[in-house]
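Predict structure. Chain length: 162.
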Amino acid sequence: MSIAAGLTATKATLDIAKALMDRLNTPNVDVHDVRMKVQEMPIHVVNAQIALGEVQSAVHAAEDDNRQLRRELETLKDSRAVADSLVFADEVYLRRKKDGSFDGPFCPACRDIDGKLVRLKLGGKGQYGGCPDQTPCRKYDCITHKISYFIPESKFNNVRVL
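Prediction complete.
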């Protein structure tokens, strides 16, 4: 049932009540007619209750959907903010902070394949075979994908590394 059906049932009940009051005020009251109208009233009241209950359920479902959509929107906004703050530099992702400095490094495989922002683990500092021009490097390991990244030490002047 709809809201309109509930309102129609309520109006019918009120119309019957008014007609009954009018008949009761006449000198020759037809008791049988009044009895039939009184018996009809609960049917309309029940119809109104059913319609209003269905509408209430629909309103609750719409409220639940709205809450879920708002949560999804916030998640998307958060994901977008993270994506907007990422900079791809020297084979890894760095996250630009509000003060202009960088946080990281983060695994590009985790980000690009899995959609996750996973911090790389510092495996050591020094001369590695993967370092360009034999410059001092930091070796970072992705524990998820078992990949190592070699990044020149000079790239980390403005990066907070945990």
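Summary: Residues 31-85 form the longest helix (55 residues).
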